[in-house]
Amino acid sequence: MAEPKLDPTIPPGLHLVSAFISMEPTNTLLSLSRECGGGLVTEGVQRFIWDHCISNEAGEKGYGPYLRNFVKRLISEVESRNGTVLDELYERCGYYMSSLKDDRLVKGSARVHKCISFLFPDVFLGCEPPSCSKSSNLVVPLHCSLNMLEGDTGCSVWPSSLYLSEFVLSFPDIFSNKSCFEVGSGVGLVGICLSHVKASQVILSDGDLSTLSNMKLNLKLNQLSAETDVLERFGEDPNTVQAELYNKSKVKCFHLPWESATESELEDYLPDIILGADVIYDPSCLPHLLRVLVILLKQKKAYTQTWEESCEGRLQDAEHIDVNGASEGKSLFAHDIHCVTIQNGNRTDPCHVEELHGGSSVARLMKCPVAYIASVIRNIDTFNCFLKLAEEANLVIADITEALVPLNLLPYMQSYNRSSIRLFTVKCK
Ligand SMILES: C[S@@+](CC[C@H](N)C(=O)[O-])C[C@H]1O[C@@H](n2cnc3c(N)ncnc32)[C@H](O)[C@@H]1O
């Protein structure tokens, strides 16, 4: 009986291709290859890999040593089960072996091009249009280093930024139309996801200059030019350039070492939301990181809202939220909770409602920012030091990992252990 043809737009073919372009370890690729063939890497699966991973653009752009290892392991897997290996794979393996004799690059700081595919539920459930669109997944191309320590650790993708990106994409309403500011942004993945969910402004920062230039490269790769482009396009009508950039990109990035960051440097940003992924790891940096968080978190933003607006909007959810942040049924949005609460249909929060006109028809509110920090707790002493410094700085930290669980948008990434990551909100007392 002929083997069913694999489709690269639905699982399991989709997972295999996604794992390949995100440069998942070879073991993951082999396990997904077996899954595609019902336990064996059949000739049909090999043909699929040849067509969708090796002989196409992905294979041409791919990193040689990675491709060589995959093809070598694939061949031994098939041979060990007495299967038939495609001639094309033998030939390509021979080519890799002769042209990539030098292994130094594999161990060094080679820059590679990978693509992180966020697969939305309708895509990975594999249902057909029009009820759901196969094109709704988000593929983010990134330049990064194979050396996790390069660029002060900022040139590779760390697991917390995968988690924070899944969080942003799973709860877009938290971030859309909000001004977002990230510290220690690394390759820029979270910022690209924030732009995807239409944050009103995305400001990325990092203290390492080589990380920053790599991040700028990634913004360009994702058609999100860094703001410096305005200067580079000197001579053109600034209004046209500004309008173009406004429509196309709202992402800016800048050099922000926490040690030297000043209040005056940060006071213009007024973010609604601050983000950080895997930034709690070096005890010597923590006092400086916390100082930056305090500066950003204490900037209250004034805004007005009518009663009708609040009834139409998400503030209605505040009825379902208690002071500890537990929610009943509806989504919980941390940045709304501390602005205003609604009790029995009346707004009551004397701390934040500054003035009420005409029997509470218009309120002038002070909105405090909130930070979302995702972290793998590798060293409990370092994390406890962060908690202690936060307490001393009058910050309140809440672990929201279980309360707001993001969708699993990276189901093919077997190397990514999401259970090791915690998500915290940080607010001023
Ligand atoms: C472990 S990496 C995480 C990168 C990225 N957020 C991610 O999760 O993929 C830590 C990041 O914090 C930045 N960083 C470390 N110390 C810093 C400091 N003192 N000031 C500013 N950025 C710093 C590094 O350059 C790096 O980009």
UniProtKB/TrEMBL annotation:
A Pfam family hit: Methyltransf_16
Biological source species: Populus trichocarpa
InterPro entries noted in UniProt: Methyltransf_16, SAM-dependent_MTases_sf
Protein name (record): FAM86 N-terminal domain-containing protein
Superkingdom of origin: Eukaryota
GO molecular function: protein methyltransferase activity
